[in-house]
Amino acid sequence: xxxxxxxxxxxxxxxxxxxxxxxxxxxxxxxxxxxxxxxxxxxxxxxxxxxxxxxxxxxxxxxxxxxxxxxxxxxxxxxxxxxxxxxxxxxxxxxxxxxxxxxxxxxxxxxxxxxxxxxxxxxxxxxxxxxxxxxxxxxxxxxxxxxxxxxxxxxxxxxxxxxxxxxxxxxxxxxxxxxxxxxxxxxxxxxxxxxxxxxxxxxxxxxxxxxxxxxxxxxxxxxxxxxxxxxxxxxxxxxxxxxxxxxxxxxxxxxxxxxxxxxxxxxxxxxxxxxxxxxxxxxxxxxxxxxxxxxxxxxxxxxxxxxxxxxxxxxxxxxxxxxxxxxxxxxxxxxxxxxxxxxxxxxxxxxxxxxxxxxxxxxxxxxxxxxxxxxxxxxxxxxxxxxxxxxxxxxxxxxxxxxxxxxxxxxxxxxxxxxxxxxxxxxxxxxxxxxxxxxxxxxxxxxxxxxxxxxxxxxxxxxxxxxxxxxxxxxxxxxxxxxxxxxxxxxxxxxxxxxxxxxxxxxxxxxxxxxxxxxxxxxxxxxxxxxxxxxxxxxxxxxxxxxxxxxxxxxxxxxxxxxxxxxxxxxxxxxxxxxxxxxxxxxxxxxxxxxxxxxxxxxxxxxxxxxxxxxxxxxxxxxxxxxxxxxxxxxxxxxxxxxxxxxxxxxxxxxxxxxxxxxxxxxxxxxxxxxxxxxxxxxx
Length: 684
Hints:
The chain has eleven helices and 39 strands. It has 684 residues and is α/β, with parallel strands linked by helices. A hairpin with a 2-residue loop joins strand 31 and strand 32. Helix 2 (38-53) packs antiparallel against helix 11 (663-682).
């Protein structure tokens, strides 16, 4: 039981203070006048002022509350290196026994794993975040100490909460640990295909690394191909050029072999994913017979800032007899020989829009265009009525690569374009919405497919859009010149821009538009596998993990021609996928896991947090420290020991309050003092 004097004033304290000043003045005046009873009157004033202050005796019954010790156990990935897990578990068990054996002491244990955000990003060891959450749930006045069992590699030290007691760090690991790490910097998110992109590599040793390691081998692999080996000096930044070979995602793996004695090989590998883009897409547009949609292709291509367009057009046919030589009809002669013979391989796509043989382009030029397609180029023919006539370019050497043959019939009536069964699976026409509301076209050239795939059908279910692969190249035939009607919103219009843009990009081999493709999208350690095909079924996908283990993943159809499945990878690194002839590579996990950027146990990260409260940093390999009681503000750690600050917290179970004197006693006392002063003065 504890007792204290408590005041409950009858008047506000400023009023009592003012009365006290008046009383003091009256006493001083009496003293100045020489009145012999001034002392008794002063005592009476004090009693009256004390009565106004309302003094009382307050007594409490208290129940002591135990001190709280917070123990944080780091169970992040870096704690799994060497024997750190065993060290930490053994120390935690012994510390728990020692703390729980202390009188009036309570232990709160917290475990901290690897931090991961909502999007699967790697955030490292968030030890301070876990401590802040724990302290928010505890009465800070009872916390006697905080003990962290960790390797000291904490990634949120800047977010340390205000500490109510000393923090001690007990380091796992060993003083002679060392590790080798491969770091890659200056990695762009995209790069131009065919042009070298320079990345900065660094092989660095940390900890008690052995002497004499002047260089280290580094293997570089692009998209799972055979790696190239370089010898890099240890501890120096070296620029390495890498040239992307394909559009879309390119996966680059950097690896340095494991060295005996290093802590881990998890940070000897880096996975970098870069999107390959073309510098400029060069397109040659050859326009023939003028028609209402003559500017359709030109407007489409010119609207794309990444396209360099060369437009070759016939403004005056050579059969127009007005006596003017053909070679004199243009102010500047068009360089047909240079375009179609010398520099044809510089183009990514050649489009013939309603073009027919007119004697301007000789057969050798068409033959060279056909060879250009076979060698990896792209050719698109947008056909009009001339395609069905005797001057059709199908009757030139170009006809050998075209996927359909004209029947010489031109259908002049309204029809509504429709997507074929194959087109519903093909990425060029897949998902084009609103087919039931598309506006009609008014003309179609009847063709008979010889090869390729029919993606769209027109009048009488005849082929309207046919795509084909010719050796290493691609060819497309649009058997109508009426696509411009959609652009003019004729009777509802249609997806002209989406269709023609997809068509052009498929011809230029954009990876997103491959009809036979195996891809994967990674989120942390999770991947979404997608297999696109024109067929009705696909086999299981073989997934090979970085360690060499394989697993069979069965895909389910989610849309026509699209099969998907989810896969969870246990390892961080490069995974290889195979289904039939389709292959893909993808990296799972962060490009550089924070847990393995720095692996050597150290107290330097948390020292600025520990020092202000005079806590300690000790190594577990030196033995478990003893626990002492220390006063608040004193040194809380030393050689072989750590300190806890007893808090002396309590809980009040009962409260009693009594006046020091009853009111009648105070009045009698004050009256007696006044009477004594009066009698003293009356004797004079």
